[in-house]
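We modelled the chain as a single entity of 524 amino acids. Its sequence is:
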Amino acid sequence: MKPIFLILFLTAFLFASNAQSPKQDDKYLVFFLTKCRQHEFDPLTFFHPNAIERRLREGLPLADESDWPVCEHHSAAILSTGAQIKMLSRWFNAAVVWADMQQLNAIKKLPFVASVEKLEKQSGEIAEVGAIADEEEQELLANQVERMGSDVLETEGLNGKGIRVAIFDVGFSGADSNPAFDHLRASNRIVKTRDFVKNRDDVYQGGSHGTSVWSCIGGKVDGKWSGLAWDAEFLLARTELASREPFSEEENWVAAAEWADQHGADIINSSLGYTNKRYFPEQMNGKKSFITRGANMAARKGMLVVNAAGNEGSGSWRIISAPADADSVLAVGGLVPCCNYRIDFSSFGPTADKRMKPNVCAQGRVYCAAENGNSSADGTSFASPLMAGFAACMWQKHRELKCMELFREIEQAGHLYPYFDYAHGFGLPHPTRFKQEKSKALFYTLEKDSTGQEIQVQLIDSIANSETPDILYYAFVRPDGVLESYYAINVTENIPLRIDAAMIGNNRLRIHYRGQTEEIYLNQ
């Protein structure tokens, strides 16, 4: 790497001076109009070879203007006002600065400043419910991987080999000594670590949430695999600090994404989310938050971003969190361990602009590594890494796929696809459904009563009869494609589904049962 670019890269994560910081609420995101032309920027020395391979696979240039460092002249001019720089973002050609009003006014007058955004002072939170007591932990451990096709993956030799996964979290306390990761340490598959909170490489402090998340991708707990991608390579980043200076979490996330891009990540797992402590529901539109914009940019660079949908489903917020609202983020909801029902805390979609979220689901209660041993835990925080491990295995098998092609194939491997709702998305993916033609068979008869006031959907006997309850999913779909309402019910016997015709209006009825989806136009 040439010296000038080494200096610029390090500058992005250093404080500008040793002076006392202004108040936390005097913090701004400053966007620049242009970048200085970087004649000497060499992507072959700046990026890891994996990052170069990813760009070639995605059909991207080896570097574009968004990859160039922020112009030194711009940052120097910011510092000359007396303001301090917290971070620089090459992707967004921006700086996060601390400034008082006099300094801010001087910054706004700089000819190369495009716009300034105030960064608010609310805190964020980790998308986690917490540890639980569970007498059947071994069954929980088996279920979390088996229901995602671990037996099929093992038969095909799929374990994430050759895929590099970045994990962004609050910390990885205890992971440096937990036996769950012995196999990764022994084979040198922990490629790089970085603490973006304290600007150092040690990530094995700050909290054990990341330890638990990591084990749900590539860990071995009590002698059994607790994730699907146990032969992947890992980049570990600490981005989260909940106790003070809270907006830095989003800055750290974007800085970590740029770092992960440089060091060749294929997949980012982010079990973090930001909701009512920072945003309003109408701002969950895939455009507002800095972290959401960063996640979409990461996807543009060819990295699959997998994120927890959030744990607000049983609270007052209820909906997904940022950055799960991003269009190009694979948002993962949680399922109960026994079956394909949404677990009660898992956040609902859609986005504020009515896009489907979550995209898919995985088990939301797991058995995983902890700071001192192992523990069972609840949260979409753990559904997300299970999905990231599944994605790594599928990308190992289908390396020719581009990032968003993999995204869509994972959706289509969901057990509900093409049916979806705002609790389950397309459901739980499985390798036997990945890149497979979807079969279709009629599984119902439809009747109206003599008055036309009631619709009866009768399941065919041979399908409805089962030793164990099945789940029937159905939704009313508006003409614009948005779901008016949706339901999931247990089917224990062959009793018709009765629907009040007055409730239907101009909507379509969409039904999913045992892998089959039908759309019924009741008013035709």
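As a brief sanity check on the tokenised model: The chain has 14 helices and 25 strands. The first helix runs from residue 3 to 11.
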